[in-house]
Design brief:
The protein is mainly α. The chain has a domain of about 130 residues. The strands form 2 sheets. It has a two-stranded parallel sheet with strand order 1-2. The longest helix has about 40 residues. The chain is globular. The N and C termini lie far apart (about 45 Å). InterPro entries: GDSL, GDSL_esterase/lipase, SGNH_hydro_sf.
């Protein structure tokens, strides 16, 4: 919505053939084009992509499923899972730094942290950060059909035991968009400065 799309990008499971070329949400359903993030990024660069946002795993141990599965009765995060996710995020940051150095002339890479652990209870109105809004299955963690979800869903970070609510997604989307927008504005300004200088010189000479 912030980018001006009239329709949401459809999930990969609903498309096939040439329709995939119009844009696909591979994140829906936890799917990806390739397992190797670096190779995928290079492939996108080869076909013209120049501005990238790579999203880290965040604190997976803070999802309701992790907390419930590991019987954390006090609602605290699972340290072991967060540590494992941190290994990936550290390598992803290193990859982003390397890509920015390698393609500094024509490309921009940024990393976004969507971790619910970065949400304070009093930040942006979120009061519940470690429990799902909807009644969910013990195994699988998804919402139980026909069960009534919480009435104050804007105060919850998680919809079910894995997926975040629209309210939290909007916070992350706005944060990522504003960060990316700032970089784009900087690049546009740098690109326009030589043009403006030439224009000024031409005006002065005439």
């Amino acid at each position: 919505q912030l980018l001006g799309f009239k329709k949401f990008i459809p999930p990969y499971a609903n498309l096939n053939g040439a329709n995939i070329l119009k844009g696909v949400n591979y994140a829906s359903g936890g799917a990806g084009i390739r397992d190797d993030t670096s190779k995928t990024t290079m492939a996108l660069h080869d076909i013209g992509a120049r501005k990238y946002v790579l999203v880290g795993l965040g604190d997976l141990g803070c999802t309701p499923n992790a907390i419930i599965t590991h019987r954390k009765t006090d609602g605290t995060c699972v340290v072991e899972q967060n540590a494992a996710a941190a290994i990936f995020d550290t390598k992803l940051k290193s990859l982003v730094d390397n890509l920015n150095n390698k393609f500094s002339a024509d490309s921009t890479f940024i990393i976004s942290n969507s971790s619910p652990a970065s949400a304070n209870k009093n930040s942006n109105g979120f009061l519940v950060i470690n429990a799902p809004c909807c009644p969910s299955y013990d195994i699988g963690g998804l919402c139980i059909p026909d069960e009534k979800p919480c009435s104050n869903r804007n105060e919850y970070v998680f919809w079910d035991q894995f997926h975040t609510t629209e309210a939290w997604n909007q916070v992350i989307a706005t944060r990522s968009y504003n960060s990316f927008k700032h970089l784009v504005e900087q690049e546009t300004k740098m690109e326009l400065e030589p043009i403006n200088e030439i224009t000024s010189q031409l005006s002065a000479s005439s």
